[in-house]
Design the sequence.
């Protein structure tokens, strides 16, 4: 039996598989294994029971999920109109938008975080503007708050929301809203019956990207709110680096991983269902 | 907006609104300072099938979009069945459109696509079932109700698009190049099918097309458009036999075409000097006028009698077109020499010296001094 050409082309995936298996899957697996063992090495879920029983851990998890949810929501609210405008933009304007989306990604989060601190400071630009407009009498505390974290993280992850939405909108036949209009659909119906359903796979993909990155982010919260308001990812780092508690760290990692995996699987299932007819 | 006085609208009798079922009055449109339509007037009677025929960029699609409400005119008005709809958005006009690419909703099934207009008008899902079934039966697609759009062929997609457009009982149906995505054989079948479908239901329809054969096949009247104007609006036979301008003559059908100059009058005829000899044509243009002479190729014979026009030429090309043969002479400048013979056995070959003969009455003549377009 000789291998067909298609079979041999399939071999090209081997280096990538080997790389991922060695560098990603294996250590992750070992980490996961550790989370189900106690200090003596026997199988145990005691660490999980303890984590979910601890009010502090629970509040950290709740904050992590809340922040990830709000970051995703804020990114979506900003990304949708941006993607709509990009879809209508042509030539130079479109290139400008794409550069504006991609260029900030090359700027490290550290630089951005310190730039934001100038904005968010008590006597920073935002507070001065709000006071000048009479929105507030005294400076509002922004730095080291969850609000600042949500705003900052949404900024970092925005391209991951805009680009998938732009991609699906761009594939949409521009005649479809017109066809809907001539069939008697008003602007509201055109949006909810045609434009949105067709864009949903992109929206779902963008939300999945941003949520899974926001739920596991470490650098941004460390820089913006620091130690006083922990997230799960910061807890993991703390338990490995400072507490030397590998059980706690690996169990938290497992929880975080399960959240991320279920978000990704759930969203790809949803996207496949939504896209099935297209 | 140039609104018609209210009393004029009220005074319109039923016969008048039938005659002026769709009345496009003095519509102006420009894009980025370039005027594409400068005072367009266009009128369609109730139940009529009309084509807007012209090359790309002539403004036919612009006119269609303005009528549908997908584009706003800068000035002028659109009256449908005695009602000024100029300022109505598209979803309140009850004008259906069949788009060039059909624009079916890919996330909906065939039946859901057809039901879209009914549902948008607030009809319940249950109430829509029966009319959707009837509309699908009308286009012989009843067995495809639950299919997805992606798996349909071009002809099937077009049928669905037509069913979707008709199920809402539109006051007017607009079709934007509806056959251009179909192959030739299927196109001809669909044209016949669609024409009788619209005719049977008394639908007033406007086809937009750049294909003159299609326009002649499907419509009662054809508006030939060029550079934002209607050059001629007439039934297909008038358009072919008596084109109003050289543009119409060239766009609708083929023709022999010679340029010359009027050198004298003979009663109701003029004498024209061309590079290929002296010709006569009906009419009374003044001596010295530069003119364009046209003859339809099937009116040309290879033998003729006294009193007929005649040009001598050397055959450049003999094209066998199945049921007919096209003889082409050596062109000179903008001139063209075409003769169409029935059948394919006529023993003519490239290089033969022959003569074209045709009746003076069959000669088309245009004042070329006013003519700017080719």
Sequence:
């Amino acid at each position: 039996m000789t291998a067909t050409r298609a079979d041999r082309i399939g071999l090209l995936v081997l280096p990538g598989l080997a790389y991922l298996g060695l560098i990603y899957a294996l250590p992750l697996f070992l980490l996961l294994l550790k989370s189900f063992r106690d200090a003596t090495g026997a199988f145990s879920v005691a660490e999980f029971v303890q984590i979910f029983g601890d009010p502090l851990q629970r509040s950290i998890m709740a904050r992590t999920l809340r922040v990830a949810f709000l970051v995703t929501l804020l990114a979506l609210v900003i990304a949708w109109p941006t993607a709509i405008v990009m879809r209508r933009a042509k030539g130079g304007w479109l290139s400008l938008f794409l550069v504006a989306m991609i260029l900030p990604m090359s700027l490290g989060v550290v630089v951005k975080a310190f730039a934001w601190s100038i904005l968010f400071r008590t006597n920073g630009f935002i507070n001065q503007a709000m006071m000048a407009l009479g929105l507030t009498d005294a400076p509002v505390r922004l730095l080291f708050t969850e609000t600042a974290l949500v705003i900052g993280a949404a900024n970092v992850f925005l391209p991951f929301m805009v680009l998938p939405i732009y991609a699906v909108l761009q594939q949409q036949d521009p005649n479809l809203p017109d066809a809907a209009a001539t069939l008697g659909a008003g602007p509201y119906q055109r949006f909810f019956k045609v434009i949105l359903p067709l864009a949903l796979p992109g929206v779902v993909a963008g939300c999945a990207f941003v949520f899974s990155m926001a739920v596991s982010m470490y650098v941004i919260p460390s820089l913006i709110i620091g130690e006083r308001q922990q997230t799960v990812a910061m807890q993991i780092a703390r338990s490995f680096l400072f507490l030397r508690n590998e059980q706690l760290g690996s169990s938290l990692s497992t929880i975080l991983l399960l959240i991320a995996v279920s978000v990704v699987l759930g969203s790809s299932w949803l996207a496949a269902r939504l896209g099935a007819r297209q | 907006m140039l609104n018609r006085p209210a009393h004029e609208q009220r005074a319109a009798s039923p016969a008048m609104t039938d005659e002026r079922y769709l009345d496009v009055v003095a519509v102006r449109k420009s894009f980025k300072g370039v005027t594409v339509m400068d005072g367009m007037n266009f009128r369609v009677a109730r139940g009529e099938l009309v084509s807007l025929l012209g090359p790309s960029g002539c403004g036919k699609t612009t006119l269609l979009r303005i009528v549908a409400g997908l584009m706003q005119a800068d000035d002028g008005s659109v009256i449908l069945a005695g009602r000024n709809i100029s300022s109505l958005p598209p979803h309140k006009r009850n004008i259906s459109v069949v788009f060039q690419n059909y624009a079916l909703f890919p996330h909906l099934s065939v039946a859901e696509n057809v039901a879209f207009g009914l549902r948008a008008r607030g009809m319940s899902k249950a109430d829509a079932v029966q009319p959707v079934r009837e509309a699908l039966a009308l286009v012989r697609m009843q067995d495809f109700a639950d299919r997805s759009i992606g798996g349909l062929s071009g002809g099937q997609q077009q049928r669905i698009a037509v069913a979707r457009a008709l199920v809402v009982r539109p006051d007017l149906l607009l079709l934007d190049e509806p056959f251009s995505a179909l192959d030739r054989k299927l196109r001809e079948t669909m044209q016949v099918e669609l024409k009788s479908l619209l005719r049977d239901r008394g639908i007033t329809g406007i086809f937009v097309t750049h294909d003159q054969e299609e326009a002649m096949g499907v419509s009662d009247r054809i508006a030939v458009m060029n550079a934002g104007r209607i050059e001629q609006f007439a039934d297909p036979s008038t358009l072919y036999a008596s084109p109003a301008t050289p543009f119409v003559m060239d766009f609708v059908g083929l023709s022999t075409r010679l340029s010359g100059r009027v050198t004298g009058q003979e009663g109701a005829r003029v004498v024209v000097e061309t590079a290929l000899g002296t010709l006569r044509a009906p009419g009374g243009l003044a001596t010295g006028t530069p003119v364009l002479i046209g003859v339809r190729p099937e009116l040309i014979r290879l033998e003729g009698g006294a009193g007929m026009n005649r040009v001598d030429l050397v055959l450049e090309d003999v094209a066998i077109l199945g049921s007919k043969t096209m003889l082409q002479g050596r062109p000179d400048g903008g001139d063209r020499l075409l003769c169409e013979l029935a059948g394919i056995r006529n023993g003519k070959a490239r290089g033969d010296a022959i003569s074209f003969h045709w009746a003076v009455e069959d000669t088309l003549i245009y004042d070329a001094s006013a003519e700017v377009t080719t």
User: Anything to note?
Assistant: The two ends of chain A are 39 Å apart (CA to CA). The interface with chain B takes residues 173, 175-176, 178-186, 189, 193-194, 197-198, 274, 277-278 of chain A (CB under 8 Å). Residues 33 and 250 of chain A are 8 Å apart (CA to CA). Chain A has a mean pLDDT of 85.
